[in-house]
Here is the input.
Amino acid sequence: MKKTLSLKRIILFASLLVSVTTLKAQFHIIPQPVSLKAGKGSFILAKNAVIGVNKETEPIGKYLQDYLNQNYGFQTTVKVFEKIPANTAIRLNNAWSNAEGAYTMHVSAASVSISGSGAGVFYGVQTLIQLLPTDKSPTLKVIACSIADQPRFGWRGLSLDVSRHFFTVDEVKKYIDVMAHYKLNTFHWHLTDDEGWRIQIDKYPRLTEVGSKISYYAKRGEFRKLDNLIDDGRDGFYTKDEIRDVIKYAQDRFVTILPEIEMPGHSEAAIFAYPQLGCQDSTGAKHRVRMLDPSEYTFKFMEDVLTEVIALFPNQYIHIGGDEAEMVDWLKSPTAVALMKREHLKSEKEVQSYFIKRIEKFLLSKNKRLVGWDEILQGGLAESATVMSWQGEAGGIAAAKMHHHVVMTPLPYMYFDAPQANEDLEPIGWNPPVTWQMVYNYEPQSKELTNAEAEYILGAQGNIWNEKVPNAQHLQYMVYPRALAVAELTWSPKNEKDLERFGWKMKNQYGLFKLWNFNARLPDIDGVDDVITNKSRFKLTLNYPLQGAKVRYALNGKMPDNNSPSAPFPVNINVPLNDSIGLRTFTTWTLNDQHIRQTASIKRVSIKPAHEKAAMLKPGMAYEVFKTGERDIAKLQDEKPAETGETNLIVPVKPVSEGLINWVKIKGFIKIDKEADYELTTGFEVSPALFLDEVEVIKSGLNTYVEPQKALLHLKKGVYAFSGHYIADKANENQTLIELKIAGGEKLYPKFYLMH
Ligand code: ACM
Here is the structure.
């Protein structure tokens, strides 16, 4: 008998559906505001609207005026008032607030009112910009709402390496401009490295005359081959006037610039320009081209450089690098050896600590604070240093426990030089893939910190290194949309985190990206997943969130390209499935001829129900935990588990000592009450292995965000035996092990279908 819903429930369900979809259709603000309430009606922003400002908010009014002019051709007027009249279309009120960056925004049918102090009004304007339509219509409609908002962290950063690839002032400005749209506020400018010195220093002109032309010297055979760079490098540097111009541009957008001058490693360009900076050995031969010699000449040189850097940059912080220094080479340097003797330094690490502490002292004397990569912990951390934790979180955690300020920018989550999807299908990058989902799920305040220690975490930052980035378009491709995840995780309250909502909002940013001619990586087609199925047809509708996007696809053929015939979305695939099918897709959109490639394999299997009767089973699944150094699960056959139990969800993570892991084996039955098509997936980043009726339906070891897997199964009423295994660790403790839903329908609750 077909079940019918009561009329009341249908109405309730329908109204819920309407309110969720309308809310969704209107508010795709990134980062998610602290409080957001929909109002009634909408405000029409006219071509000649008046923007009322106070003296303090006038520059922000002009910024908005410029934005509306550049992007929509509007001719608005900015009027300055002591007290802005209530009938002014857009009001930017300077208001006192004790939270840096806080603002309120009220949009009614009559007007838009934004209030805040300092950066607050600017952030309110960014929220308004995100609510504007992205097509160039003669009037702009803004949905009525009330927002109260403020950032979670004070440090919301993005870095840019201009050494490995030089970016022009305009390219840097565009990078800062888009950061600011998402309320990111710290631009870490990596100005010097082995492959190029990019900042004018008057006292040492060869730093730019020679040090900024490394690819020129490399091509002449006078510098080593730059074969670590995808394009053999691009020469260039910023004059002081250009740097002042960029600083002003950033200030107008409430972005602080953190300049980085690398020492004592990563200094090859500087040493090439001034060989006396480099280490020499006892024969006088230069034996290390990347390491600064810890000589008085070097200290004086670097202090002179920093003096000029400090005179330019108003930021209280100066980054001095400190990463990946080849310290053992100091042991061959007569200067370093003499220094060790004089200062009673017992190791090369203590030489580095001495080096950093001397620079710290110098910076403190100029009222500046030192930031360094986490290697500066080695040999003793300088007293006032702020640590940027990049080699994972350990350095940051250790520093916070020592009551040092920390910026979390750990591998892999915050490294945007990694590919964003399957590395075989993406442009070349470093490291295994890092998806936006991995970035989004990152939490800067580690559970290993007490609440008091967690206060030392200033925020988080995404990093990009540009060895494999040949131009600004590609830079934008690598950094976005992942930077949007950094924006939300550093701004929005932790309890507002919602991966699904964020994914939806992210897709709604592409109208803006198009308006700004900004080349963010295109979204993937949803549903191009590796599928295990027991059905005799493969059906899939390829849908895409971006209007005007096209797909080329092949079944069991080679990857399509720009020359293959294309179809507009949606595309229906409906073909017989005997054994397996390889699906390849090539998606293009109207922006920059960018394309995205995806692949999936679809395999047919046979799954039979078990003989057990549901009535004989109890709820939950059985598990066994093995604490072991063995990474090969097959070798645990004869081991006794350290623990056994039953659970509805996943097994709580139990700490293991260094070098050991928690293998978890699971076993049970899935109880099916109604014959239907079901979808079985996992919410794990690193997949568990899952077998149904001894058929592998989810493969272990993959990154499920990169290569999503699902089983699409027609199941009859009855029970189906399952088993599986996974490694329990911090990465999966908040994720869902098994997700079962009716195909295309609602999720089922594990407590109703897991039995053992
Ligand atoms: C770094 O990635 N070497 C800071």
The pocket of acetamide is lined by residues 323-324, 373, 390 (CB under 6 Å).
